[in-house]
User: Fold FAD-dependent oxidoreductase from Streptomyces cupreus.
Amino acid sequence: MDRHGDSRERSVMTGAHGPKPFTGSTVAVVGGGWSGIAAAWYLAGGGAEVTLFDEQDRLGGRCAGTELGSRTVTLGGKNIGRNYTYFRDFARTLGSVAFEPFGINSSRVEDGRLRTIDSSARLRSATVLARSTSPRDGIRLLRLASLVRRHEAEGHLGGPALTALALRHSDPPLHEYFGPRACAALLRPLTVRTTGAEPDEVHLGTLGCQLGLLMDSFDQPTAGFDPLFRAFAQRVTVRLGTRVTRLARAGDRVVGVLAAPTSTKTPTLHPADTVVVALPAPSAARLVEEAAGELAAELRQIRYFPAAVIVAEYERPVFPERVRSLVFGPEEPLSNAGAYGLAERNIVRYTFSGRAARRRLAADVPDADLLDLAEDLLGAHFPVRRQDRRDFVAGRWVWAYCAYSRFHERRLRRLAGLGAAVPGLEITGDYVRGASIEQCFRAARARVSALAARWSG
Assistant:
């Protein structure tokens, strides 16, 4: 797909050459994260009467706003790439969000020295990376990066060239295709940040959607996503604090959802011509099990990993201007600590992900103890002190990161076939095109476009 998408797709979805394809239809969207928001947005744009259901009390999934003292912060990802075409179209249409530059700036300790990767100093950063890999791995990484840069499709799940390369090598985990230096210096910081997984848990065929992030420049919303969520909720009916417990069926067809407020256990039928399940794959599998057992079985093969995020505010800046984050090694449960914003270097975002973090999270270590540990680790390099801490807020998610699966493109094709066999049911999520906000929008747009083409045909 090119930058603006296929022209036929655009006209079918928007009804540019006739009535909007979904006019007069009702659609239930299950899931209030970015995948659900995107699906609801495109369906409503096609004329559908959409109701979005989510069991949280705020829209946005992990990106929902959370109070830290007198301000609202975002615990989930908040970086918006300059190449986030569809998300930026969405935000521009709603007109409720402003952005400020916030490029990639990440450091790690190597031989006692800080090595910094900064997207605003690409040549210097490239030199740092080149020194961190063997010649063979350097050539392989440069070829893949060039492929992703030249062909937009390769920066998302299912890119044809990268998929073909992975198949030629039986889609190995990254630590079998690249050497230990490349895995430690470049790939692990990338995989843990984007999938919560170690290099031995990520397969080559899915690397493109992660490398694509390195090819972009980033902004962040100046006031978080809450203004955007409020504007969206004025366009689409949103039922928060409502759990969808089952899909309603008439014969083989899905005809609505059974949903109940989280405060009660008595579900109510909400009829719909189409139900879009826009949840993490494990949650989606549980919901579609009765209607589509084989589909559920495929969804369960997609790997997810947990994470915890703590955002803490301090009396004085923790990071200097030129270094905004620090990446930690595989032996530590803290994977990353970074400044919340360019001008908010006194607010630190601590991320616990990767194999070592899972052991702590499985043991249900209290948030305050995790924060003490994080401050000790960061304090070895930057001036962070408990007595300077004003406040903190924390979040944990069992299925925080999608790490996809081996031969993932084949699985996606099987999911598409199995989903098409269930009338009235559509699925989308972070496992379709990738887990970034833009990739969630692209996946939802493609699914809604395919549905529009069927209805219009």
Notes: The longest strand covers residues 389-404.
